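Reopening this ticket.

The earlier resolution said the output was attached, but the attachment link was broken on my side. Pasting everything inline this time so it's all in one place.
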Amino acid sequence: MLEVFKGAGLLIYPLGLCSLIAIYILCERLYALRQDAVLPNDLVDAIVEGKAQPGGRHSVLARVVEFANSHRTDPESVKAFARLELNRMERVFPTWRSSTRRRRSSA
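Inline output:
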């Protein structure tokens, strides 16, 4: 196996780096979009049963429901907020994004 890497030359190093980056992105997306982060069971059950929403903004659904409850008269703003949350879910590297926000706000 070591002979294969030696025979591949210098091009094996960028290929290996790209492979590691792809694995990191895959793992990060699997973690960020897990079921409990997007649709927690307790929140879904509360919404289906028409109960008050459990406390906390721990998921995308909770943030959208909270916004919809505070803006009942403006359905277009609720749709726009839901689109914004979907856009945030589609982005890669949320840890990088939050660190850049901290730098901007402290400057």
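Reporter confirms the inline version is readable. The longest helix spans residues 12-32. Residues 35-90 form one domain.
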